[in-house]
Amino acid sequence: MKRIPALVLCVLLLLPLFTSCAEKEEQTETAAVSDTAATVAEDTADPAYVPDLPDMRFEGKTFTFLVHYFPCFAHLYDVETEDDSSDIVISSVFNRNTAIFDRYGVKIEAIKNDNAPMMAKNAFKANDDAYNAVWLKVDDFFSLSIEGAFHNYGDEVPYVDTSKSYWDQGVVNDFTYGGKLYGLMGDISTSISIYTHLLVVDTTLANKLDVNLPELYDTVRAGDWTFDRFYGLLKSCNAYSDNNGNAIRDGVDTYALAVPPDMMWSFTVAAGEKWVVKDGNDYYTVAPLTERLQNVVNDIIDLGNDKYITVATWNVGSVPGVSDADTYGYTIQTKFYNSTALFTDADIAAVLEARANKDTDFGILPEPKYDKSQDRYSTYAYPFYPLLSVPVAVKGEKLEMTGLIIEALAAESYKTLTPAFYEKALSSKYVRDVHSYDMLKIILNSRIYDPIYFYSWAGGTFRDSLVNMLTGNKKTLSSDYKRGSKSLNKALLKVYDKFVER
User: Fold this and answer.
1) 413: closest CA among 58, 94, 81, 57?
2) What is the maximal distance between C-alpha atoms in the chain?
3) Minimal CB count within 10 Å: which of 7, 58, 250, 320?
4) Could you read off the pLDDT of 396-446 as tens digits, one per residue?
5) Do residues 172 and 181 touch, judged by C-beta distance below 8 A?
């Protein structure tokens, strides 16, 4: 099997990202390609991206992943493939795994099963080392991790260096509990990126409404993209249009913003706020209810229920030909696809799907900071993504091979899989501006993780009450917090007890 050299592949994959139909834009985009290629070359030479791994061979060995296929990899599967492909991501997986085979003599195989959590649990109980590593959806991962099913990456898995930039440092920081880290994510897979939230902006509408997109991109880069700036733009752009002329605000009309109920979570995260934080001993505890947090929630409720700015699943009204059961999908997808929403709170899966379903240009932006006091943008990932773990049954030489191959795959993915994913996400004929690469890089490098969203049994009623406040237009956070924080703390104490007992 022939393998394209990794750095060359990376540059080649990025080239089409900036292709333009307009001759006037060609020189600008060519310069952008050169700058991007130079950045990639510089990053690849940086010690933060280069693995410190020994030259070892494991001739004839097989590395077996257990993969929780649905929903984690339903949109884009990138663990292993037997053949090369015209699909740029699948081809990069083929090249990555071929590189690992050439270098270490290890063949990558995967067992894909929607029942992977139970299979991993049964293997744990039987002390069976059938799987070198497992990809489990985040809540299933957590349930097994507190039972002691996985090795601690901190001191038990050789060769894995969690300080490297190809590991998601948000995962490393937020999933470390009591000094122990049982799951990882990073460049080794695109699955977490698929569920990462962002704002998509319709270029046709933006031009029609005199919204200056290059200026917005510059605002993002300057760190000045805030909630007030965003809300002010939505109010001033006069996007609302009574498309069917019935003098009734309904789902057929055009709006400045289309949102799902998840906006309560995505915009709270974008504000840099968490409901569950770490205490001085690195254990989870409920965050205090600050004035800033209350203001964040109240402002999200106001935005979500501003009926002449926002169309939402809970206030969409009647839509001819759309049943109640289809309203959710209609609001967050169709309004984006048919250019009747200027901005849409979506995830990257929607961006990929738009390549086949949307006929006009669009751009992407991170969801706004709450205010300029935030030192960085913060991004929410819907908890359908997996984390990579090593079962405790894997020991000795098998554990040594497992750690080395995981680290090698992650480093190789940075050079092959990640640029291929950027290309797949942005190379549509409908995303042509050079700014989108910068925006996606900001978005994917700013995820933070709050246990209330992915530890579902711990978040429970309190998490649901946040959405109910939004959809019911009720500013009852103070009372809901008093009730919900008690049950949430009890759940977190059970997590603590599990760890202490071990």
Assistant:
1) 94
2) 72
3) 320
4) 999 999 999 999 999 999 999 999 998 888 876 655 567 888 899 999 999
5) yes
Residue bearing tokens 């760890």: 499
Three-state secondary structure of 357-403: HCCCCEEEECCCECCCCCCCCCECECCCCEEEECECCCCHHHHHHHH
Please write the tens of the pLDDT for every residue from 71-96: 999 999 999 999 999 999 999 999 99
Q: Six-digit token pair at 351?
A: 């961006």
Question: Is 444:196 a contact under the CB 8 Å cutoff?
Answer: yes
Sequence-ordered list of residues with C-beta below 8 angstroms from that of 305, at least 6 positions apart, any chain = 312, 315, 470, 473
> Token digits for 54?
């020994």
pLDDT in tens, 158-198: 999 999 999 999 999 999 999 999 999 999 999 999 999 99
Domains in the chain (CATH in brackets) are: 47-193+384-415 (3.40.190.10), 197-380+448-501 (3.40.190.10)
Separation in Å, CA 84 to CA 88, 98, 420: 9, 10, 14
